[in-house]
């Protein structure tokens, strides 16, 4: 299935995504209003700093600045002129999501996480731009605290709006299908903007399946801008298509030795990776589902030291991932560790896909997971925690009753390899201590 066929099949589905917001008929988004958070205007001294990291170019009206499907894209700062962010560019139902003018910049969180572009940017008037490569933007995030704060804030707000609109990847599948729910969980846990077309009662879903000749056995399917059609992909294949699975290639046979391997990218694993790398250790962080772990799904964390106003799980995950990148942590996403084999002075961890990583020390920070009811049918009827409305998590927790977390039958994770598995704990031993990283070997 080629990329163009997928692109034109998605084009028609805009009629579903946009009317929910009442935008398609106008062909323009409601995000046209200016707001300091999402569309800041840079002051002259800030522009002068940014000029050090990029190169200036003249652009003509209609010049393409980046296109959906591009493997990565630059941070574009408008010095003169105007540019538009367009969804489904070139299709009859293209929508302008936002328009930016002089001293404003384009881009969203995906630029920092390495995600493929899923929107296009077009110069709507002749002008001049500053192009800053993504690698340089990461340097800015590490070296220029004021600009870093401003850019991160704008990217997070934009990302939240795009996620709310359901821009980007389209998933077609049945609500009763465990694979659809598995992929929805990966999308939700990774906080990826996407739209889900339910097979049950959605003419758009039926049309896509018909046009792309998808047999029922191939469902669910994912349509990623710039990528061939994905038929019931694994989590790894889905994240790969989005450009997120692995930032750095690691020798798959374990011949490369790192100082520290951290398994699990929740708050504990991210913290361990940042501390290890900041001490000069070559550090690899392997995460099965999504950076941020359980905390990444929280709408607001109030008790994190140093953040009196609280912060969202998404922001915590984004900040921690940036910090890890800053210190050179190699991040392996969609990597489930299944076995640990310890030798003299080094350890080998094998992943589900057969990759092996050798490390002088290993920290297992795989957190907790919830027991499932052993009743028949529960496997097909359960929803994913992260796709549940977030406020329901909060309501279930009585005010001030922290112990209700352990009452929810949290238990320590039991890795699939006996050599990795911690001793089984009763639920009464869960609680704050259950969140700490477990160091099996150093
Ligand atoms: C909705 C929600 C709101 C919350 N709000 C708060 C709050 O406000 N304040 C608070 O203190 N706590 C809160 N918590 C609890 C808090 O999120 C957890 O205590 C914390 O996330 C535990 O961190 P962790 O890194 O130990 O484990 P986790 O967050 O569970 O992370 C473990 C990670 O390891 C990965 N992993 C597991 N097995 C493997 C494997 N074999 N290979 C590779 N990776 C693997 C998992 O995918 C996961 O990302 C909240 C939790 C939830 C779900």
Task: Describe the protein in words.
The N and C termini lie far apart (48 Å). The chain has a domain at 253-375 and 405-441: FAD/NAD(P)-binding domain. The chain is α+β, with helices and mostly antiparallel strands. Strands 10, 11, 12, 13, 14, 15 and 18 form a 7-stranded mixed sheet that branches. The protein has 13 helices and 18 strands.
Key words describing this protein structure:
442 residues, alpha+beta, FAD/NAD(P)-binding domain, 7-stranded mixed β-sheet, 5-stranded antiparallel β-sheet, disordered C terminus, binds flavin-adenine dinucleotide
Number-wise, the strands total 18
Level of helix content? 25-40%
CATH uppermost class of the domain at 253-375 and 405-441:
Alpha Beta
CATH topology descriptor of the domain at 253-375 and 405-441: FAD/NAD(P)-binding domain
The CATH superfamily of the domain at 253-375 and 405-441 is known as FAD/NAD(P)-binding domain
Q: Percent of residues in beta strands? A: 15-25%
Hetero ligands? flavin-adenine dinucleotide
Which spans of ≥5 residues are poorly predicted at pLDDT below 50?
Answer: 14-34, 384-442
Whole-angstrom Rg: 22 Å
Main sheet record: 7 strands, mixed
Q: Helical stretch count?
A: 13
CATH architecture of the domain at 253-375 and 405-441: 3-Layer(bba) Sandwich
**Distance between the first and last residues' Cα:** 48 Å
Average pLDDT confidence is 80
Structural class of the secondary structure composition? alpha+beta
Shape: globular
């Amino acid at each position: 299935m080629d990329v163009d066929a997928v692109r034109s099949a998605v084009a028609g589905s805009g009629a579903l995504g946009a009317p929910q917001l009442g935008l398609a008929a106008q062909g323009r988004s409601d995000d046209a209003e200016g707001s300091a958070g999402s569309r800041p205007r840079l002051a002259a001294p800030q522009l002068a700093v940014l000029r050090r990291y990029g190169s200036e170019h003249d652009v003509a009206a209609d010049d393409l600045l980046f296109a959906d499907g591009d493997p990565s894209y630059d941070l574009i700062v408008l010095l003169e002129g105007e540019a538009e962010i367009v969804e489904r560019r070139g299709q009859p139902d293209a929508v302008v999501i936002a328009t930016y003018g002089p001293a404003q910049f384009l881009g969203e969180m995906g630029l920092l996480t390495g995600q493929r572009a899923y929107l296009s940017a077009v110069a709507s008037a002749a002008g001049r731009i500053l192009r800053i490569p993504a690698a340089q933007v990461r340097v800015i995030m590490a070296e220029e605290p004021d600009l870093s704060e401003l850019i991160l804030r704008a990217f997070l707000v934009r990302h939240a709006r795009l996620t709310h609109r359901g821009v980007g990847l389209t998933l077609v599948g049945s609500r009763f299908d465990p694979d659809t729910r598995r992929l929805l969980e990966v999308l939700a846990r990774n906080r990826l903007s996407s739209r889900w077309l339910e097979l049950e009662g959605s003419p758009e879903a039926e049309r896509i399946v018909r046009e792309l000749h998808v047999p029922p056995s191939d469902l669910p399917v994912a349509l990623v801008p710039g990528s061939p059609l994905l038929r019931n992909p694994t989590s790894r294949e889905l994240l790969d298509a989005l450009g997120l699975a692995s930032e750095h290639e690691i020798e798959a046979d374990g011949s490369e030795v790192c100082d520290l391997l951290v398994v699990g990218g929740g708050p504990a694993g991210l913290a361990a990776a940042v501390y290890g790398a900041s001490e000069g250790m070559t550090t690899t962080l392997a995460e099965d589902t999504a950076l941020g772990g359980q905390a990444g799904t929280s709408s607001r964390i109030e008790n994190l030291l140093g953040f009196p106003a609280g912060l969202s799980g998404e922001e915590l995950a984004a900040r921690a991932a940036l910090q890890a990148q800053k210190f050179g942590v190699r991040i392996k996403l969609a990597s489930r560790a299944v076995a640990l084999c310890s030798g003299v002075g080094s350890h080998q961890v094998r992943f589900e896909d057969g990759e092996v990583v050798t490390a002088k020390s290993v920290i297992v920070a795989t957190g907790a997971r919830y027991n499932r009811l052993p009743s028949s049918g529960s496997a097909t009827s359960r929803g994913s925690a992260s796709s549940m409305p977030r406020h329901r998590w909060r309501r279930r927790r009585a005010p001030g009753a922290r112990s209700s977390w352990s009452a929810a039958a949290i238990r320590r994770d039991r890795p699939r390899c006996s050599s990795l598995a911690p001793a089984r704990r009763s639920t009464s031993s869960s609680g704050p201590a259950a969140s700490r990283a477990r160091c099996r070997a150093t």
